[in-house]
Amino acid sequence: MLAIKLKPVGKKHQKTYRVVVAEKRSKLDGRFVADLGWVNPHADTHHIDGEKVTEWIKNGAQPTPSVHNLLVKAGIINAPKIPVHSVAKKKKEEGAA
What we know:
CATH 3.30.1320.10
């Protein structure tokens, strides 16, 4: 199964990410099938080819939750954002008087 995911590139503490199509179970720095764009979280900039993304999604590639939220932010996908991190449940206070 193919996935659209973020591939880290760059120096330590200055990571930027390539948006790539790769096998879902492959390593982050492993081979990829197609390059769809880039993301710089430090400058909050990105460039993603929307036509290629929609074509890969039509062919069955599933975006990861982080990439899905990025595509929603870029306006390529019209869908609600997906919570990426789980929220810890608060413990009920026992015997609070």
